[in-house]
Amino acid sequence: MNSGRPFFEKILAAAVENPGSVIFPEGDDARVVEAARLLLEWKAVKKITLLTASPSMDSTSSGGRLPNDARLNFLSTSDAELIETTKKAYQLFMARKAKPVESSDLDRISTSALFQAGSMLLDNRADCVVAGCVATTGEVIRAALGTVGLAPGIKIVSGSFILNRRDGDKSETYVFADCGVVIEPTVEQLSDIAVGSCETLAKITGEVPVVAFLSFSTKGSASHPRATKMREAAELFKKRMPHIDSDGEMQFDAAVVPAIGKRKAPNNRVSGRANCFIFPDLDSGNIAYKITERLAGFRAYGPILQGLSRPFSDLSRGACAEDIAVSALINILRSRIK
Questions:
Q1: In CATH, what is the architecture of 2-149+309-336?
Q2: Number of Cβ within a 10 Å radius of residue 146
Q3: What is the value of pTM for the model shown?
Q4: Domain ranges for the chain
Q5: CA 21 to chain centre
Q6: How far, in Å, CA of 278 to CA of 234, rounded?
Q7: Is a pLDDT exceeding 50 seen at residue 4?
Q8: Taking 70 as the threshold, does the pLDDT of residue 135 lie above it?
């Protein structure tokens, strides 16, 4: 738990102080256009690139929804230079994997707005890409992997959510993962998910991660392969990130309530202090964040794709304009805060 301003106010203030640039591959969608308008109004960006199927799209053709602003850049997906840049980026990716490139695949990929956005991000023409209000999560991840690729030492993409609730003069902020990508993570994948989640929490909120690998068991209170998996994942993570307080397997109440944690896992630095929760599977993670959002009064921010070398993030296809704009703020911060 941390005192201070609500989460949105904090990230908006940080973005205004150090504005960045974002690419929206789905620039023809009305929600994205409105999100761009909000970001300009908030003074939170220095550049917005909208990829559009129209060769002549500009602020005057957006139905009056966008101002004539030097921070806005419209780029057609049929732009010859952009297509060529995307081809080269994908050929480089396939060469690293020592795989041949079919000409038909290359033509399809080079005209894909998602891959085009990824090639621009790879070329440092923006700080982040935000997509997924039209495309599926699978399509977004394939484009991200085929351009910017995985971060060093990471073998899997995962998806987290930031959960925040204001209570009087205090603001609670947590990270839940994986809530959107990996259905049945292995021990090694759970460790990767935790690495990405710690980075998400630290970069975006400035808080020090305290990680709990969740289970129906706390430190051997039950014997089952599922509990063993979480304990092994916690042990592997400790070896990788010994400077971060972490433990598992733990029940949720032991991880967040000090009195319960003291009884169930005494002399444990995580008990009652956790702010970063690693769930055993996608079922539990997805269900838990939605219950927390709908019944406990928390606001859920995400999904945030973790494990990529650059911020290339996903959206819910039900996202509204404000959701899209806030996702852009989050991913700009992920790129700019070291």
A1: 3-Layer(aba) Sandwich (3.40)
A2: 20
A3: 0.86
A4: 2-149+309-336, 158-299
A5: 16
A6: 9
A7: no
A8: yes
